[in-house]
């Protein structure tokens, strides 16, 4: 398909994504107008993805779009906020095919419909380099109620949503270093890498309950490490309590070294959070209402002589030695 | 200088730029919290720049940073809004030197101090391609008072700030297709291309006065064309009234073909706006208080049989035929 001009491309593929937001002026203005609801303040985050670094260049364009939106909405969710809109900057190779753009905009449409957000504005430019995408997501949270990484208190429980490690294993499948035993396991892991889901419902529900929260993008160890450092706390995680999918279980049972992907792998975009034990029942209720598993995996301890940090322990309390490196992109 | 890790780079060079915004959490959180003041709504815009496309790869890093911020703040100004903060996504080549990053952050600091804005968050990633920068600027405007491109009415005067065409001529100097007669002219034109200034003071003052506004990024003809199209209006510009700098005057006097750069060249980041003649005195006062020349260059006419559009006319009313192409990047 021949390439339309920048203006035609915006009008055809992107302006429809702004239709539900009157302040976006159909993407025809210099900027968009938007306001958090009364009693709320705005939450804003920006994440960038580069072809060949954050996704595989031949990944389907609709899935790239869905992931780009999901990783940003995940940051909004980790603040306990409700996402409302986003802007988009795309630098694409000049020879990009219009079918690619069409697929990308379809992925955005699917993802934004599900998340109840609208495109508010952005910029498209050509680049001699790889496709480079930057998305800025906006959300709103009751004033003063935003979650941060710094509020964990000794005695708080540590929770995660969903299952951990699938995305890192899925990436290993895609780059050919892991071959699961069944096609179903293979598909399940790849889907988790390519199509992460922002835990929006849980995030919104955590405002007023969680003492600290983060989304797992760099890996469980690295991201809990951020919470530990900023809360000046020690986090003890019972390795056996970490929730694994059926597919991940099958992989680590066969090859225990793959536990490294569970502790250290990134890209799951689950939420990790801390909360006082007094909130345990509310958290169970939230898991049911958001239809999302929430699992208690550990506890916040006082920092004593040590640096703030994260320890994974066996059922007998012995510490598991792992490389606590964050996710390394391929 | 050796390259620090991503976390060290953020802490050393970018976190200080967020110091004045408590909601940025020192860039240590998933997202930032921010709120427009009471009675205001938020304005948001995103612009992207690629090395070799929007700036020359060996341009000084501090000037690239200043320009990146300026082009976004210019969009905020064109909405009649006051800029307040921004997020930044940087995809830089893996071998980028830390001195480059230091220079870039110094440019940001200078520009944000001048504009009274703070860095709120962002993302830095590596890329195998050219340096790619995306900035999202936030501002605030009294609720319901945001300017758009669609409000121009027949009889309104058309104004521009500053002088027109300098940046396009400056780019010609930089790529070697124009050699001004004096070194002072050369420097003045190059400075306009490399160091555009967002007309923040005028923009804020235009809220409640202008009927439509836009910043001149694609070129006077193209950008007034956007206003004409969206206001469904015809715009008549007296070519002789277009304000030129001393340096630009010298160039077009010697080589009249360079008028093409005045009509069609981009990157000036001046404001063009329309206002009822009833506001003429207020606009004079605004020009003085913002210490920025504002020049009346034309008038909005009814669309009669023609399509909405822009006509440049001679003093005798005859129409000047020009290629009304927007700015083409090198």
Describe the structure in your own words:
2 copies of one chain form a homodimer. Chain A has 330 residues and is an alpha+beta fold. Chain A has 2 domains: 137 residues, 60s Ribosomal Protein L30, Chain: A (2-Layer Sandwich); 161 residues, Alpha-Beta Complex (Phosphoribosyl-aminoimidazole Synthetase, Chain A, domain 2). In chain A, 33% of the residues lie in helices and 25% in strands. In chain A, helix 5 packs across helix 8.
What key attributes describe this structure?
homodimer; 330 residues; alpha+beta; 60s Ribosomal Protein L30, Chain: A; Phosphoribosyl-aminoimidazole Synthetase, Chain A, domain 2; 2 domains; 7-stranded mixed sheet; 4-stranded mixed sheet; 12 strands; 33% helix; globular
Concise summary:
The structure is a homodimer of 330-residue chains. With 330 residues, chain A is an alpha+beta fold.
* Strand line-up of the largest beta sheet of chain A: 7-9-6-10-8-11-12
CATH C-level name of the largest domain in chain A: Alpha Beta
- Going by helix content, strand content and strand pairing, the class of chain A is alpha+beta
What is the second-level CATH architecture of the largest domain in chain A?
Alpha-Beta Complex
Largest interface: A-B, 61 and 62 residues
Order of helices and strands of chain A: HEEHEHEEEHHHEHEHHEHEEE
The beta-strand count of chain A equals: 12
Task: Give the low-confidence spans of chain A.
Answer: 324-330
Distance linking N and C termini of chain A: 32 Å
CATH H-level superfamily of the largest domain in chain A: PurM-like C-terminal domain
Strand-residue fraction of chain A? 15-25%
Overall morphology of chain A: globular
Average pLDDT level of chain A: 93
Helix content of chain A: 25-40%
Separate helix tally of chain A = 10
Radius of gyration of chain A: 20 Å
Query: Oligomeric state of the chains?
Result: homodimer
Largest sheet of chain A: 7 strands, mixed
């Amino acid at each position: 398909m021949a390439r339309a001009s920048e203006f035609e491309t915006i009008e055809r593929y992107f302006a429809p994504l702004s239709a539900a937001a009157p302040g976006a002026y159909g993407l025809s203005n210099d900027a968009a107008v938007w306001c958090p609801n009364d009693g709320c303040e705005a939450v804003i985050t920006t994440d960038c993805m580069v072809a060949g670094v954050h996704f595989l260049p031949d990944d389907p364009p609709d899935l790239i779009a869905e992931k780009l939106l999901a990783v940003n909405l995940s940051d909004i969710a980790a603040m306990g906020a409700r996402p409302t809109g986003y802007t988009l900057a795309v630098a694409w190779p000049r020879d990009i095919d219009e079918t690619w753009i069409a697929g990308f905009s379809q992925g955005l449409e699917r993802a934004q419909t599900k998340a109840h957000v609208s495109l508010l504005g952005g910029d498209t430019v050509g680049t001699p380099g790889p496709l480079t995408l930057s998305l800025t997501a906006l959300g709103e949270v009751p004033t003063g109620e935003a979650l941060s990484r710094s509020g964990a208190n000794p005695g708080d429980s540590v929770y995660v949503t969903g299952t951990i490690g699938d995305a890192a294993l899925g990436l290993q499948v895609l780059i050919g270093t892991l071959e699961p035993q069944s096609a179903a396991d293979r598909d399940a892991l790849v889907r988790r890498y390519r199509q992460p889901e922002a835990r929006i419902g849980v995030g919104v529900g955590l405002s007023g309950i969680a003492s600290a929260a983060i989304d797992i993008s760099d890996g469980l160890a690295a991201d809990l490490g951020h919470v530990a450092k900023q809360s000046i706390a020690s986090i003890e995680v019972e390795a056996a309590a970490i929730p694994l999918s059926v597919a991940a279980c099958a992989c680590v049972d066969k090859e225990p070294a793959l536990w490294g992907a569970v502790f250290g792998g990134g890209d799951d975009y689950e939420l990790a959070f801390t909360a006082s034990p007094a909130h345990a029942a509310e958290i169970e209720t939230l898991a049911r209402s958001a239809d999302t598993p929430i699992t208690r995996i550990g506890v916040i301890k006082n920092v004593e002589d040590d640096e703030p940090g994260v320890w994974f322990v066996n059922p007998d309390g012995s510490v598991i030695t792992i490389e606590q490196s964050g996710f390394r992109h391929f």
